[in-house]
Amino acid sequence: MYLYDLQTPVRRVRGVGPQAEKDLARLGIHTIGELLTHIPRDYEDRSKRVPFAAATGNGGRFNTTAIIDCHDFFYVRGKKTLKLVLRDESALAELSFFGRDERATAHYANKYPPGLRLDIAGTAALSYGKLQCVKFEMEPAGTHPELFSCVLPVYPLAGSLAQKSLRKIIRAAYEQGSHLEDEIPADIRGAGNLLPLSAALKAVHDPASLDEAAAGRRSLAFRELFLMQMEVARRALQRKAAVRSTRAYSPALQEKLIKALPFQLTADQKKCVGEMRADIEADHPMSRLLQGDVGSGKTLVAFLSALLFTQAGRQTAIMAPTELLARQHADNAARLLQPLGVRLAFFSGALSGRARKPALQALKAGDIDIVIGTHALFSDDVEFRDLGFVVIDEQHRFGVIQRNRLFAKGLYPDILVMSATPIPQTLALSAFGDMDVSLIKTMPEGRKPIETHLALEANARKVYEFVRVELGRGHQAYFVYPLIEENQAADLKDAQSMYHKLQNEIYPGVPAGLIHSRLGEEEKRAIMADFSSGKIRILAATSVVEVGVDVPNATCMVIEHAERFGLAALHQLRGRVGRGAQQSYAFLVYAPEYTGLAQKRLTIMKETTDGFRIAEEDLLLRGPGDLSGVRQAGLLDFRAASLPGDTQLMLDARKAANAILEKDPGLNAPRHAGLRGAGTAAGAVSGAGDAP
Ligand code: ADP
Ligand code: MG
């Protein structure tokens, strides 16, 4: 038998041709490991017989043996259509072959003669008082027991992949996989009532009962969480093992900046600054997650910590997910830090060769104290003289990867990951289990809570009138749309058309701007600068303004087709206003034909501005299987596990992993690979962009 490991490309599995390979790739399946953890979204329980008469009480599902009572023919739009009248011990049911040509109809009449006994399973519905088979699978009685006394997996599909062929492919894969070794120690499996790997795979893909399927999934989920927690724990150990001599850092520069600020630090900011100073002076590298809602003042905290390093003659790198945000950080740094004599540099992918070289040299020579940029900061040719501190803004996945890369290079700078995407506790534990967490819970004083209003599209005029009053007071407004430009296929407002309409019809005479992800970086920067300075008063945009953009004089956020945006995006967008002392407003304008889920999202937005609550609700609402937002943050690439449902399992896995490593820190414990998905693999770094 052909032996494989979990990293083997999926095309090596029997039955996978070029088309199937393409379709599988669309499902995120490239390796056999990923194929084996393609978890069914449902099961069709054919383990028990359900006669026709019981179908309606069973969600329409039946699984029975019937005899063909007679044929009947009728006409649908002039087409002769064959109907089989079936009888089992409980009732009659009808089954019609719609839409066939004459030859096919004759073929079926011949293949299914009256008197033939059939095993048949499927769904039926009552129509005109008669039970009609809607979906069905049938074979001559007794010929295919594996199809009619079993629990069939129902997989997520893509492309032209059919349920039947995917079942075959997966079956081939796990039948070939009986040699797979289980990395989970037997005693841990025993304690958790978990199946060994090959049994778990069989249970998931070919269960004898729904209970067995659930036990199988649970075992795979535990395995996935355990391997992840092993890695998290190992990383924590590695960091703690990187012992360095402690040193005292002078806070003189830090204090100078605090004195120069036109406001007081909030109590939470002070606490965070203190926590970080203790980390920085400790005998192993800092690895800290700074969480705080948009506008809570995280960036300032990061700057203050960076000043400790500047004072000590060491360098800081601050990385933002987009050029726009990096520029904004750079502008803030120029405003706050340059007066203190801090030497700043900006570094991005857009930096041309000619400008890049001197910047590289200055960094290497130590002529730069703080460099701000995009992930171009971590290109291979970028060298520092003494990199002491790395700040990563809003890019969680990147933070983890980057940290691993730096460690691999033997560099152990202090690392701060900042997040305004409030990360629910459970996720923080899973992905950042080895990081310390600082929280900024309260907003700077004087900020008024944002007023949020929901408005039906038909009432958009009223919203525009309200905004007119705010503009009259000298304030500014964002208008956000789900599309960049008009799309014939979708009946949605778009940023470009609305930009013209806002400028020419709704607010003639008020200077407006348009921004979206397809503009060049320079163009985006110029527009943001104009909006920031007040030259532009109205900004029509896509969700490109989602993260981090900071214009305190903007008091109105109008989101049209708000039903189209996820909770996380809505929260981020709303966070663009309410950043100054004035009362700010968010208007969520929605179309009448929206789903219950969208309604729930909007209700939550109206009810609370607490980012942490919104994040938890988001996770609950989306449920397993649709976590794209969180996934974008790089936190949840689980295949078998799903959070928050598997929180307890994750806590158990965490305990088990820690216990193992505590007993034997040098243990060459299982690598985190194979059955887990792309997980922590480098590469997939997501940035801010327009909503789909
Ligand atoms: P975040 O990075 O958390 O989104 P920022 O650090 O960008 O927040 O701060 C948002 C705005 O609030 C900035 O204009 C900043 O100068 C200001 N700010 C920060 N801390 C305070 C404070 N304690 N009091 C008043 N304003 C503050
Ligand atoms: Mg920020």
What does this structure look like?
By secondary structure, this protein is an alpha/beta fold. Among the domains are: 48-149, Nucleic acid-binding proteins (OB fold (Dihydrolipoamide Acetyltransferase, E2P), Beta Barrel); 252-283 and 296-419, P-loop containing nucleotide triphosphate hydrolases (Rossmann fold, 3-Layer(aba) Sandwich), CATH 3.40.50; 451-608, Rossmann fold, CATH 3.40.50.300. It is 39% helix and 19% strand. A seven-stranded parallel β-sheet has the order 10-11-9-12-13-8-14, sandwiched between helices. The longest helix is centred in the first third of the chain and has 32 residues, at 210-241. It binds adenosine-5'-diphosphate (ADP) and magnesium ion. Residues 263-266, 269, 292, 294-300, 420, 444, 550, 552, 579 line the site of adenosine-5'-diphosphate.
The spatial strand order of the largest sheet comes to: 10-11-9-12-13-8-14
Compute the number of strand runs. 20
Report how far apart the termini are.
45 Å
Briefly note the CATH topology name of one domain. Answer: Rossmann fold
The major β-sheet equals: 7 strands, parallel
Query: Which architecture of one domain would the CATH scheme give at its second level?
Result: 3-Layer(aba) Sandwich
Helicity level = 25-40%
Number of helices: 24
List low-pLDDT spans. 624-634, 668-692
What coarse outline follows from CA principal-axis ratios? Answer: globular
| Cofactors, ions and other ligands in the entry | adenosine-5'-diphosphate, magnesium ion
